[in-house]
Protein backbone atom coordinates (compact mmCIF):
# COMPACT_ATOMS: atom_id res chain seq x y z
CA UNK A 1 0.00 0.00 0.00
CA UNK A 2 1.42 3.39 -0.98
CA UNK A 3 2.41 5.64 1.96
CA UNK A 4 0.34 8.63 0.83
CA UNK A 5 -2.72 6.41 0.76
CA UNK A 6 -2.13 5.51 4.42
CA UNK A 7 -1.73 9.21 5.16
CA UNK A 8 -4.99 10.06 3.44
CA UNK A 9 -6.74 7.25 5.25
CA UNK A 10 -5.34 8.62 8.51
CA UNK A 11 -6.82 12.05 7.77
CA UNK A 12 -10.21 10.45 7.23
CA UNK A 13 -9.79 8.45 10.39
CA UNK A 14 -9.00 11.50 12.52
CA UNK A 15 -12.18 13.27 11.44
CA UNK A 16 -14.25 10.18 12.01
CA UNK A 17 -12.56 9.31 15.31
CA UNK A 18 -13.08 12.86 16.61
CA UNK A 19 -16.80 12.58 16.11
CA UNK A 20 -17.02 9.22 17.86
CA UNK A 21 -14.86 10.59 20.66
CA UNK A 22 -17.34 13.39 21.43
CA UNK A 23 -20.13 10.87 21.89
CA UNK A 24 -18.06 8.19 23.62
CA UNK A 25 -16.48 10.56 26.14
CA UNK A 26 -19.95 11.64 27.29
CA UNK A 27 -20.99 8.00 27.67
CA UNK A 28 -17.78 7.26 29.55
CA UNK A 29 -18.11 10.28 31.84
CA UNK A 30 -21.67 9.35 32.77
CA UNK A 31 -20.68 5.77 33.47
CA UNK A 32 -17.64 6.84 35.47
CA UNK A 33 -19.60 9.16 37.75
CA UNK A 34 -23.11 7.70 37.92
CA UNK A 35 -22.19 4.06 37.38
CA UNK A 36 -24.98 3.71 34.80
CA UNK A 37 -24.46 2.53 31.25
CA UNK A 38 -26.73 4.94 29.46
CA UNK A 39 -28.19 3.26 26.36
CA UNK A 40 -30.26 6.41 25.71
CA UNK A 41 -26.98 8.20 24.97
CA UNK A 42 -27.45 7.51 21.25
CA UNK A 43 -30.73 9.41 21.37
CA UNK A 44 -28.98 12.54 22.60
CA UNK A 45 -26.67 12.26 19.60
CA UNK A 46 -29.59 11.85 17.22
CA UNK A 47 -31.74 14.57 18.78
CA UNK A 48 -28.75 16.92 18.87
CA UNK A 49 -28.28 16.29 15.15
CA UNK A 50 -31.95 16.87 14.30
CA UNK A 51 -32.28 20.01 16.42
CA UNK A 52 -29.07 21.46 14.97
CA UNK A 53 -30.06 20.64 11.37
CA UNK A 54 -33.55 22.09 11.85
CA UNK A 55 -32.08 25.24 13.38
CA UNK A 56 -29.59 25.63 10.53
CA UNK A 57 -32.31 25.11 7.91
CA UNK A 58 -34.60 27.57 9.69
CA UNK A 59 -31.84 30.16 9.97
CA UNK A 60 -31.04 29.66 6.29
CA UNK A 61 -34.71 30.09 5.41
CA UNK A 62 -34.75 33.42 7.27
CA UNK A 63 -31.75 34.54 5.23
CA UNK A 64 -29.42 34.68 8.22
CA UNK A 65 -25.67 34.34 7.57
CA UNK A 66 -24.29 30.80 7.38
CA UNK A 67 -21.60 31.27 10.05
CA UNK A 68 -24.45 31.54 12.55
CA UNK A 69 -24.69 27.74 12.26
CA UNK A 70 -21.69 27.25 14.54
CA UNK A 71 -23.07 29.04 17.60
CA UNK A 72 -26.38 27.33 16.78
CA UNK A 73 -24.66 23.91 17.00
CA UNK A 74 -23.37 24.75 20.45
CA UNK A 75 -26.73 26.14 21.58
CA UNK A 76 -28.56 23.07 20.25
CA UNK A 77 -26.16 20.73 22.04
CA UNK A 78 -26.52 22.51 25.38
CA UNK A 79 -30.29 22.80 25.00
CA UNK A 80 -30.71 19.08 24.29
CA UNK A 81 -28.28 18.07 27.05
CA UNK A 82 -29.74 20.33 29.70
CA UNK A 83 -33.43 19.91 28.95
CA UNK A 84 -33.78 16.29 27.79
CA UNK A 85 -30.73 15.03 29.69
CA UNK A 86 -31.83 16.87 32.82
CA UNK A 87 -35.36 15.48 32.64
CA UNK A 88 -34.17 11.89 32.09
CA UNK A 89 -31.82 12.09 35.09
CA UNK A 90 -34.14 13.88 37.48
CA UNK A 91 -37.30 11.91 36.65
CA UNK A 92 -35.95 8.42 35.95
CA UNK A 93 -32.31 7.63 36.58
CA UNK A 94 -32.35 9.14 40.07
CA UNK A 95 -34.61 6.28 41.15
CA UNK A 96 -32.40 3.45 39.94
CA UNK A 97 -28.90 4.27 41.22
CA UNK A 98 -27.53 1.36 43.20
CA UNK A 99 -30.15 -1.00 41.76
CA UNK A 100 -29.28 -4.03 39.66
CA UNK A 101 -27.44 -3.35 36.42
CA UNK A 102 -30.01 -5.28 34.39
CA UNK A 103 -32.69 -2.90 35.62
CA UNK A 104 -30.56 0.13 34.77
CA UNK A 105 -29.96 -1.21 31.26
CA UNK A 106 -33.67 -1.89 30.78
CA UNK A 107 -34.67 1.58 31.96
CA UNK A 108 -32.16 3.42 29.79
CA UNK A 109 -33.04 1.15 26.86
CA UNK A 110 -36.71 2.03 27.36
CA UNK A 111 -35.80 5.73 27.37
CA UNK A 112 -33.90 5.14 24.15
CA UNK A 113 -36.93 3.53 22.48
CA UNK A 114 -39.23 6.32 23.64
CA UNK A 115 -36.89 9.07 22.49
CA UNK A 116 -36.33 7.29 19.17
CA UNK A 117 -40.07 7.35 18.45
CA UNK A 118 -40.55 10.85 19.83
CA UNK A 119 -37.87 11.99 17.44
CA UNK A 120 -39.75 10.45 14.48
CA UNK A 121 -42.94 12.21 15.59
CA UNK A 122 -41.27 15.59 15.97
CA UNK A 123 -38.81 15.59 13.05
CA UNK A 124 -40.48 13.12 10.68
CA UNK A 125 -38.89 10.19 8.91
CA UNK A 126 -37.78 11.93 5.74
CA UNK A 127 -33.99 12.44 5.46
CA UNK A 128 -32.84 15.85 6.65
CA UNK A 129 -29.75 17.38 5.11
CA UNK A 130 -28.21 20.68 6.20
CA UNK A 131 -24.69 20.80 4.77
CA UNK A 132 -24.42 24.56 4.32
CA UNK A 133 -22.04 25.03 7.30
CA UNK A 134 -19.65 22.42 5.85
CA UNK A 135 -19.64 24.00 2.40
CA UNK A 136 -19.24 27.46 3.89
CA UNK A 137 -15.87 26.51 5.40
CA UNK A 138 -14.52 25.36 2.02
CA UNK A 139 -11.97 22.67 1.21
CA UNK A 140 -8.24 22.04 1.39
CA UNK A 141 -6.21 19.97 -1.06
CA UNK A 142 -3.98 17.21 0.30
CA UNK A 143 -2.03 15.10 -2.26
CA UNK A 144 -4.53 16.06 -4.91
CA UNK A 145 -7.53 15.06 -2.85
CA UNK A 146 -9.99 17.67 -1.64
CA UNK A 147 -10.99 17.50 1.99
CA UNK A 148 -13.58 19.71 3.62
CA UNK A 149 -12.05 22.01 6.21
CA UNK A 150 -15.06 21.22 8.33
CA UNK A 151 -14.13 17.55 8.67
CA UNK A 152 -10.37 17.85 8.51
CA UNK A 153 -9.89 20.82 10.83
CA UNK A 154 -13.03 21.94 12.65
CA UNK A 155 -14.29 18.62 14.04
CA UNK A 156 -10.85 17.45 15.26
CA UNK A 157 -10.28 20.88 16.83
CA UNK A 158 -13.59 20.71 18.67
CA UNK A 159 -12.74 17.20 19.89
CA UNK A 160 -9.33 18.39 21.08
CA UNK A 161 -10.88 21.39 22.84
CA UNK A 162 -13.38 19.08 24.58
CA UNK A 163 -10.61 16.70 25.66
CA UNK A 164 -8.37 19.45 27.05
CA UNK A 165 -11.29 21.43 28.45
CA UNK A 166 -12.79 18.42 30.22
CA UNK A 167 -9.43 17.48 31.71
CA UNK A 168 -8.83 21.04 32.98
CA UNK A 169 -12.39 21.31 34.25
CA UNK A 170 -12.13 18.09 36.26
CA UNK A 171 -8.65 18.84 37.53
CA UNK A 172 -8.60 22.58 38.15
CA UNK A 173 -12.09 23.79 39.02
CA UNK A 174 -13.68 23.10 42.36
CA UNK A 175 -16.85 21.82 40.68
CA UNK A 176 -14.77 19.45 38.58
CA UNK A 177 -12.89 18.22 41.62
CA UNK A 178 -16.21 17.63 43.34
CA UNK A 179 -17.22 15.40 40.39
CA UNK A 180 -13.99 13.42 40.74
CA UNK A 181 -14.51 13.10 44.49
CA UNK A 182 -18.08 11.80 44.08
CA UNK A 183 -16.82 9.32 41.47
CA UNK A 184 -14.27 7.91 43.87
CA UNK A 185 -16.38 7.80 47.02
CA UNK A 186 -19.89 9.19 47.08
CA UNK A 187 -20.39 9.01 50.86
CA UNK A 188 -16.99 10.49 51.73
CA UNK A 189 -17.65 13.27 49.24
CA UNK A 190 -20.98 14.07 50.90
CA UNK A 191 -19.22 14.15 54.27
CA UNK A 192 -17.00 16.84 52.74
CA UNK A 193 -20.04 18.95 51.91
CA UNK A 194 -20.52 17.90 48.29
CA UNK A 195 -24.13 17.68 47.07
CA UNK A 196 -23.89 14.36 45.22
CA UNK A 197 -27.42 14.62 43.80
CA UNK A 198 -26.55 17.88 42.09
CA UNK A 199 -23.23 16.49 40.84
CA UNK A 200 -25.05 13.55 39.23
CA UNK A 201 -27.51 15.86 37.51
CA UNK A 202 -24.83 18.18 36.13
CA UNK A 203 -22.59 15.32 35.05
CA UNK A 204 -25.45 13.75 33.16
CA UNK A 205 -26.25 17.09 31.50
CA UNK A 206 -22.60 17.51 30.47
CA UNK A 207 -22.39 13.97 29.10
CA UNK A 208 -25.68 14.35 27.20
CA UNK A 209 -24.59 17.74 25.81
CA UNK A 210 -21.37 16.20 24.49
CA UNK A 211 -23.34 13.51 22.66
CA UNK A 212 -25.67 16.18 21.28
CA UNK A 213 -22.66 18.25 20.20
CA UNK A 214 -21.32 15.23 18.31
CA UNK A 215 -24.72 14.93 16.66
CA UNK A 216 -24.89 18.63 15.85
CA UNK A 217 -21.46 18.55 14.21
CA UNK A 218 -22.30 15.42 12.25
CA UNK A 219 -25.53 16.95 10.95
CA UNK A 220 -23.62 18.99 8.38
CA UNK A 221 -21.72 15.99 7.02
CA UNK A 222 -24.42 13.44 6.51
CA UNK A 223 -28.10 13.16 5.84
CA UNK A 224 -30.12 12.47 8.97
CA UNK A 225 -32.38 9.45 9.01
CA UNK A 226 -34.12 7.60 11.84
CA UNK A 227 -31.75 5.06 13.37
CA UNK A 228 -28.55 7.13 13.45
CA UNK A 229 -28.76 7.06 17.24
CA UNK A 230 -28.63 3.29 17.52
CA UNK A 231 -25.60 3.08 15.22
CA UNK A 232 -23.79 5.63 17.33
CA UNK A 233 -24.57 4.12 20.73
CA UNK A 234 -23.09 0.78 19.67
CA UNK A 235 -20.00 2.44 18.23
CA UNK A 236 -19.41 4.73 21.18
CA UNK A 237 -19.91 1.83 23.55
CA UNK A 238 -17.18 -0.04 21.65
CA UNK A 239 -14.89 2.97 22.12
CA UNK A 240 -15.70 3.40 25.81
CA UNK A 241 -15.28 -0.31 26.52
CA UNK A 242 -11.99 -0.45 24.63
CA UNK A 243 -10.69 2.46 26.68
CA UNK A 244 -12.06 1.23 29.99
CA UNK A 245 -15.34 2.83 31.04
CA UNK A 246 -14.85 6.16 32.80
CA UNK A 247 -11.49 6.98 31.16
CA UNK A 248 -11.44 10.32 29.36
CA UNK A 249 -8.01 10.30 27.70
CA UNK A 250 -8.51 6.61 27.09
CA UNK A 251 -11.68 7.35 25.14
CA UNK A 252 -9.69 9.75 22.94
CA UNK A 253 -7.03 7.15 22.16
CA UNK A 254 -9.58 4.40 21.58
CA UNK A 255 -11.72 6.66 19.36
CA UNK A 256 -8.65 7.48 17.31
CA UNK A 257 -7.67 3.81 17.06
CA UNK A 258 -11.13 2.85 15.92
CA UNK A 259 -11.42 5.84 13.60
CA UNK A 260 -8.06 5.09 11.96
CA UNK A 261 -8.72 1.36 11.86
CA UNK A 262 -12.02 1.91 10.15
CA UNK A 263 -10.85 4.38 7.53
CA UNK A 264 -7.82 2.24 6.70
CA UNK A 265 -10.22 -0.65 6.24
CA UNK A 266 -12.34 1.52 3.93
CA UNK A 267 -9.31 2.11 1.71
CA UNK A 268 -7.74 -1.33 1.75
CA UNK A 269 -10.34 -3.89 2.79
CA UNK A 270 -13.76 -2.28 2.43
CA UNK A 271 -15.59 -5.49 3.30
CA UNK A 272 -14.28 -5.16 6.90
CA UNK A 273 -15.31 -1.53 7.28
CA UNK A 274 -18.21 -2.06 9.67
CA UNK A 275 -16.52 -4.90 11.50
CA UNK A 276 -13.27 -3.15 12.39
CA UNK A 277 -14.39 -1.26 15.54
CA UNK A 278 -15.63 -4.47 17.10
CA UNK A 279 -12.56 -6.45 16.04
CA UNK A 280 -10.41 -3.84 17.78
CA UNK A 281 -12.64 -3.95 20.85
CA UNK A 282 -12.51 -7.75 21.02
CA UNK A 283 -8.73 -7.80 20.52
CA UNK A 284 -8.19 -5.26 23.30
CA UNK A 285 -10.62 -6.85 25.74
CA UNK A 286 -9.12 -10.31 25.17
CA UNK A 287 -5.76 -9.01 26.34
CA UNK A 288 -6.97 -6.42 28.88
CA UNK A 289 -10.52 -7.28 29.97
CA UNK A 290 -10.82 -4.06 32.00
CA UNK A 291 -10.01 -1.91 28.98
CA UNK A 292 -6.79 -0.24 27.86
CA UNK A 293 -6.51 2.48 30.45
CA UNK A 294 -8.05 1.20 33.62
CA UNK A 295 -5.81 1.88 36.60
CA UNK A 296 -5.18 -0.60 39.36
CA UNK A 297 -7.52 -0.20 42.33
CA UNK A 298 -5.84 1.76 45.10
CA UNK A 299 -5.40 -0.07 48.33
CA UNK A 300 -7.89 0.62 51.09
CA UNK A 301 -5.87 -0.09 54.25
CA UNK B 1 -23.83 21.17 71.71
CA UNK B 2 -24.52 17.70 70.25
CA UNK B 3 -27.55 16.03 71.77
CA UNK B 4 -28.78 12.62 70.74
CA UNK B 5 -32.02 11.36 72.24
CA UNK B 6 -33.56 7.93 71.85
CA UNK B 7 -31.86 7.39 68.51
CA UNK B 8 -32.56 4.14 66.68
CA UNK B 9 -31.28 3.17 63.27
CA UNK B 10 -31.19 0.12 61.06
CA UNK B 11 -29.24 -1.32 58.14
CA UNK B 12 -31.34 -3.42 55.78
CA UNK B 13 -33.86 -4.23 58.48
CA UNK B 14 -31.30 -5.06 61.17
CA UNK B 15 -31.37 -2.69 64.10
CA UNK B 16 -27.87 -1.34 64.74
CA UNK B 17 -28.61 1.54 67.13
CA UNK B 18 -31.13 1.14 69.95
CA UNK B 19 -32.52 4.12 71.85
CA UNK B 20 -29.17 5.88 72.06
CA UNK B 21 -28.92 8.85 74.43
CA UNK B 22 -25.72 10.78 74.11
CA UNK B 23 -24.52 14.32 74.73
CA UNK B 24 -21.40 16.24 73.90
CA UNK B 25 -20.56 19.69 75.25
CA UNK B 26 -18.63 22.39 73.45
CA UNK B 27 -14.89 21.73 73.55
CA UNK B 28 -15.35 18.35 75.23
CA UNK B 29 -13.38 15.24 74.39
CA UNK B 30 -15.49 12.14 74.59
CA UNK B 31 -14.59 8.53 73.90
CA UNK B 32 -17.03 5.97 72.53
CA UNK B 33 -15.74 2.51 73.34
CA UNK B 34 -17.05 -0.68 71.86
CA UNK B 35 -16.12 -3.91 70.12
CA UNK B 36 -16.18 -4.37 66.37
CA UNK B 37 -19.75 -4.38 65.19
CA UNK B 38 -21.10 -2.76 68.35
CA UNK B 39 -22.38 0.25 66.40
CA UNK B 40 -19.61 2.86 66.76
CA UNK B 41 -19.37 3.61 63.06
CA UNK B 42 -23.15 3.51 62.73
CA UNK B 43 -23.54 6.21 65.36
CA UNK B 44 -21.05 8.49 63.59
CA UNK B 45 -22.66 7.79 60.22
CA UNK B 46 -26.04 8.62 61.73
CA UNK B 47 -24.68 11.98 62.87
CA UNK B 48 -23.40 12.60 59.32
CA UNK B 49 -26.74 11.57 57.82
CA UNK B 50 -25.79 8.28 56.15
CA UNK B 51 -28.00 5.98 58.22
CA UNK B 52 -31.67 5.19 58.00
CA UNK B 53 -32.87 6.62 61.29
CA UNK B 54 -36.02 4.89 62.58
CA UNK B 55 -36.57 6.82 65.78
CA UNK B 56 -35.27 9.52 68.08
CA UNK B 57 -33.46 12.72 67.26
CA UNK B 58 -30.05 14.32 66.81
CA UNK B 59 -29.63 18.00 67.55
CA UNK B 60 -26.52 20.03 66.87
CA UNK B 61 -26.15 23.56 68.22
CA UNK B 62 -29.91 23.71 68.75
CA UNK B 63 -30.81 22.49 65.23
CA UNK B 64 -32.55 19.21 64.50
CA UNK B 65 -30.19 17.42 62.11
CA UNK B 66 -33.03 15.44 60.56
CA UNK B 67 -33.88 18.60 58.63
CA UNK B 68 -30.29 19.17 57.47
CA UNK B 69 -29.25 17.28 54.34
CA UNK B 70 -26.10 15.15 54.70
CA UNK B 71 -24.00 17.43 52.50
CA UNK B 72 -25.07 20.47 54.52
CA UNK B 73 -23.99 19.01 57.86
CA UNK B 74 -20.27 19.72 57.35
CA UNK B 75 -21.30 23.33 56.79
CA UNK B 76 -22.42 23.46 60.42
CA UNK B 77 -18.79 22.88 61.43
CA UNK B 78 -18.77 19.10 61.71
CA UNK B 79 -15.65 17.32 60.46
CA UNK B 80 -15.61 13.55 59.96
CA UNK B 81 -12.63 11.22 59.58
CA UNK B 82 -14.01 7.78 58.62
CA UNK B 83 -12.35 4.63 59.86
CA UNK B 84 -10.98 3.56 56.49
CA UNK B 85 -9.65 7.09 55.73
CA UNK B 86 -11.56 7.44 52.44
CA UNK B 87 -9.09 9.89 50.94
CA UNK B 88 -9.49 10.75 47.27
CA UNK B 89 -6.64 8.81 45.73
CA UNK B 90 -6.02 10.90 42.61
CA UNK B 91 -5.66 14.13 44.58
CA UNK B 92 -2.57 15.20 46.48
CA UNK B 93 -2.66 15.37 50.26
CA UNK B 94 -3.18 19.10 50.24
CA UNK B 95 -5.92 18.90 47.60
CA UNK B 96 -7.66 16.38 49.84
CA UNK B 97 -7.38 18.66 52.85
CA UNK B 98 -8.54 21.73 50.95
CA UNK B 99 -11.41 20.04 49.12
CA UNK B 100 -14.18 20.48 51.72
CA UNK B 101 -13.33 24.14 52.27
CA UNK B 102 -13.22 24.78 48.51
CA UNK B 103 -16.57 23.07 48.05
CA UNK B 104 -18.04 25.32 50.74
CA UNK B 105 -16.56 28.39 49.05
CA UNK B 106 -14.44 29.35 52.02
CA UNK B 107 -12.30 32.40 51.17
CA UNK B 108 -8.77 31.54 49.99
CA UNK B 109 -7.22 33.59 52.77
CA UNK B 110 -9.25 31.67 55.34
CA UNK B 111 -8.28 28.33 53.75
CA UNK B 112 -4.61 29.35 53.96
CA UNK B 113 -5.06 30.29 57.61
CA UNK B 114 -6.70 26.99 58.46
CA UNK B 115 -4.05 25.05 56.51
CA UNK B 116 -1.32 26.73 58.51
CA UNK B 117 -3.02 25.76 61.75
CA UNK B 118 -3.43 22.19 60.51
CA UNK B 119 0.25 21.87 59.54
CA UNK B 120 1.19 23.14 63.00
CA UNK B 121 -0.80 20.34 64.58
CA UNK B 122 0.36 17.76 62.00
CA UNK B 123 3.84 18.90 60.93
CA UNK B 124 4.66 15.65 59.09
CA UNK B 125 1.89 16.38 56.58
CA UNK B 126 3.51 19.65 55.58
CA UNK B 127 6.38 17.68 53.98
CA UNK B 128 4.00 15.31 52.19
CA UNK B 129 1.54 17.93 51.00
CA UNK B 130 2.20 17.52 47.27
CA UNK B 131 2.27 13.72 47.30
CA UNK B 132 -0.66 11.84 45.77
CA UNK B 133 -2.91 10.39 48.44
CA UNK B 134 -2.78 6.97 46.77
CA UNK B 135 0.83 6.49 47.84
CA UNK B 136 0.33 7.08 51.56
CA UNK B 137 0.97 4.55 54.29
CA UNK B 138 -1.88 3.70 56.65
CA UNK B 139 -0.64 6.02 59.38
CA UNK B 140 -0.02 8.95 57.03
CA UNK B 141 -3.47 8.41 55.59
CA UNK B 142 -5.05 8.60 59.06
CA UNK B 143 -3.26 11.89 59.69
CA UNK B 144 -4.39 13.27 56.33
CA UNK B 145 -7.97 12.22 57.12
CA UNK B 146 -7.70 14.00 60.48
CA UNK B 147 -6.37 17.10 58.72
CA UNK B 148 -9.26 17.03 56.27
CA UNK B 149 -11.75 16.74 59.11
CA UNK B 150 -10.05 19.70 60.81
CA UNK B 151 -10.52 21.83 57.70
CA UNK B 152 -14.29 21.90 58.20
CA UNK B 153 -14.64 20.71 61.77
CA UNK B 154 -14.60 24.10 63.39
CA UNK B 155 -16.98 22.97 66.15
CA UNK B 156 -17.06 19.17 66.23
CA UNK B 157 -14.75 16.46 64.93
CA UNK B 158 -15.77 12.83 64.64
CA UNK B 159 -12.85 10.39 64.54
CA UNK B 160 -13.73 6.79 63.79
CA UNK B 161 -11.16 4.37 65.27
CA UNK B 162 -8.22 6.62 64.50
CA UNK B 163 -5.71 4.26 66.12
CA UNK B 164 -6.99 1.16 64.33
CA UNK B 165 -4.13 -0.59 62.54
CA UNK B 166 -1.47 1.95 63.47
CA UNK B 167 1.99 0.73 64.45
CA UNK B 168 2.86 1.76 68.04
CA UNK B 169 5.21 4.54 66.98
CA UNK B 170 2.62 6.02 64.62
CA UNK B 171 -0.08 5.66 67.26
CA UNK B 172 2.09 7.74 69.58
CA UNK B 173 2.61 10.33 66.87
CA UNK B 174 -1.13 10.44 66.24
CA UNK B 175 -1.82 10.82 69.95
CA UNK B 176 0.68 13.67 70.14
CA UNK B 177 -1.11 15.35 67.24
CA UNK B 178 -4.44 15.00 69.06
CA UNK B 179 -2.92 16.54 72.19
CA UNK B 180 -1.53 19.41 70.12
CA UNK B 181 -5.00 19.84 68.65
CA UNK B 182 -6.53 19.91 72.14
CA UNK B 183 -4.10 22.64 73.17
CA UNK B 184 -4.37 24.78 70.03
CA UNK B 185 -8.14 24.42 69.47
CA UNK B 186 -9.70 24.01 72.93
CA UNK B 187 -13.15 25.04 71.65
CA UNK B 188 -13.53 22.13 69.17
CA UNK B 189 -15.40 19.13 70.55
CA UNK B 190 -13.93 15.70 69.78
CA UNK B 191 -15.80 12.42 69.58
CA UNK B 192 -13.39 9.50 69.21
CA UNK B 193 -14.44 5.89 68.81
CA UNK B 194 -12.09 3.09 69.77
CA UNK B 195 -12.17 -0.60 70.53
CA UNK B 196 -9.17 -0.39 72.84
CA UNK B 197 -9.97 2.04 75.67
CA UNK B 198 -6.42 2.28 77.01
CA UNK B 199 -5.38 4.33 73.97
CA UNK B 200 -7.74 7.13 74.92
CA UNK B 201 -7.21 7.21 78.65
CA UNK B 202 -5.06 10.32 78.42
CA UNK B 203 -7.53 12.41 76.44
CA UNK B 204 -11.10 11.69 77.08
CA UNK B 205 -12.77 13.38 79.99
CA UNK B 206 -15.94 11.39 79.46
CA UNK B 207 -16.52 8.00 77.99
CA UNK B 208 -19.46 6.06 76.69
CA UNK B 209 -19.58 2.36 76.03
CA UNK B 210 -21.52 0.91 73.13
CA UNK B 211 -22.61 -2.71 72.93
CA UNK B 212 -25.07 -4.18 70.41
CA UNK B 213 -26.22 -0.70 69.55
CA UNK B 214 -26.90 0.38 73.12
CA UNK B 215 -24.93 3.24 74.62
CA UNK B 216 -24.21 3.66 78.31
CA UNK B 217 -22.09 6.28 79.98
CA UNK B 218 -18.98 4.92 81.70
CA UNK B 219 -19.09 6.38 85.20
CA UNK B 220 -15.93 8.23 86.16
CA UNK B 221 -14.46 8.35 82.65
CA UNK B 222 -11.82 5.98 81.36
CA UNK B 223 -10.06 5.16 84.64
CA UNK B 224 -8.97 1.54 84.62
CA UNK B 225 -11.17 0.51 87.49
CA UNK B 226 -14.39 1.76 85.96
CA UNK B 227 -13.52 0.05 82.70
CA UNK B 228 -13.20 -3.19 84.54
CA UNK B 229 -16.55 -2.43 86.12
CA UNK B 230 -18.07 -1.83 82.73
CA UNK B 231 -16.83 -5.22 81.66
CA UNK B 232 -14.82 -3.88 78.76
CA UNK B 233 -11.28 -4.52 79.81
- CATH level-1 class of chain B: Alpha Beta
What strand line-up does the widest sheet of chain A have? 1-2
Number of helices of chain A: 12
Mean pLDDT of chain B: 88
How many domains is the backbone of chain B divided into?
Answer: 1
Q: What is the arithmetic mean of pLDDT of chain A?
A: 89
The general outline of chain B is globular
Number of strands of chain A: 2
> What CATH architecture of chain B do you see?
3-Layer(aba) Sandwich
How would you summarize what this structure contains?
The complex is a heterodimer of chains A (301) and B (233). Chain A has 301 residues and is mainly alpha-helical.
Describe the structure.
- The complex is a heterodimer of chains A (301) and B (233).
- With 301 residues, chain A is an all-alpha fold.
- Chain A has one domain: Orthogonal Bundle (ABC transporter involved in vitamin B12 uptake, BtuC).
- In chain A, 72% of the residues lie in helices and 3% in strands.
- Chain A is built from 12 helices and 2 strands.
- Chain A has a two-stranded antiparallel sheet with strand order 1-2.
- In chain A, a hairpin with a 2-residue loop joins β1 and β2 (145-148).
- In chain A, α2 (41-61) runs parallel beside α4 (101-123), α2 packs across α9 and α7 packs across α9 (196-218).
- The longest helix of chain A is centred in the first third of the chain and has 32 residues, at 3-34.
- The radius of gyration of chain A is 19 Å and the shape is globular.
- In chain B, α2 (93-103) runs parallel beside α5.
- Chain B starts with a strand and ends with a helix.
- The model of chain B is unreliable at 225-233 (pLDDT under 50).
- By secondary structure, chain B is α/β, with parallel strands linked by helices.
- Chain B has a single domain (2-229), classed as 3-Layer(aba) Sandwich (Rossmann fold).
- In chain B, the strands form 2 sheets. Chain B has a 6-stranded mixed beta sheet with strand order 6-7-8-3-9-10, with helices on both faces. Chain B has a 4-stranded antiparallel beta sheet with strand order 2-1-4-5, covered by helices on one side.
- Chain B has helices spanning 40-48, 93-103, 108-121, 123-128, 138-152, 168-184, 224-229; strands spanning 2-11, 14-24, 29-33, 52-60, 63-64, 78-81, 156-159, 189-194, 206-211, 214-218.
